[in-house]
Structure formats: C-alpha cells, structure tokens
Amino acid sequence: NVGLANANLLGILVERGELAEAAEIGRSYIDRFRDVGVAWVVLDHYGLRLAKSGLHAASARVIGWNDATVRGKAVRRQVNEQRAYESAMSIGRGKLPAAELDRLLAEGAAMSEDEICRVAIED
C-alpha cells in the first residue's frame, strides 16, 4: 500500500530531522489517511514534526487529539508511533509550562478529526 509506505517514510523523515520533506509528504497524504480512517495511526509523527519545527501549541493539540483517539479505540501504538508520541511529549514538556501543555492537549482532544488534520499540516 502506497499510503502505508508514505506513512513510514513520514516517520523516518521526522526522526532524521528532515522536516521540510516530512511536511511535504504529510501535506500530500493527510487527506488520504483521514479518508480511509487511519489518520490516528500516523498523527504522532505529524505531532513530532510540529514539535521539532517549534510549533509547540499545534504539536500539543495534535498529540492530545491522537492520544484521546488511541485511548478511545483501546489500542496500543506501534513502536515507532510510541517513540514519536514520547518524543513530542518530551519536547512539549520542555518548551511549555505544564498547565499550558495540559490545556493544549485537552483542546486538541476536543477537536474534530478534520480540524486536527488541518492543524497537523501547519507550517
């Protein structure tokens, strides 16, 4: 599946710090991921890209939405997605006051999937 391959490529690019390339892939595929119901599988990578790009509020919203969705589905993240989630949270904790991070996580959790997908591709 080309979509899954690009999801993996997105994660690799983010991990390697190739953020412009990751953003390009992310913008190209977010609608496809959402349309087939798998945006939640890859959104931790989008959140980490945002965090590494200094877009901490957007990152926290994306991570908050995705964490609520993962918990709601009662599933476990795959290893790479768990690592992306933990890295994004670590950056968020280092850059945002705890109360602000908590507020943004909750704000993201309350957003619709369409809204959070738009936030995920911010630059």
Number of alpha- plus pi-helical segments: 7
The helix content is over 70%
Question: How much of the polypeptide forms β-strand, as a percent range?
Answer: under 5%
| Helix and strand run | HHHHHHH
Descriptive report:
The protein is built from seven helices and no strands. Helix 2 packs antiparallel against helix 7.
TL;DR?
By secondary structure, the chain is an all-alpha fold. It contains 7 helices and no strands.
Using brief descriptors, characterize the structure shown:
mainly alpha, 82% helix, 123 residues
Topology:
Layout: H1 2-16, H2 19-35, H3 39-52, H4 56-73, H5 79-95, H6 98-109, H7 113-120
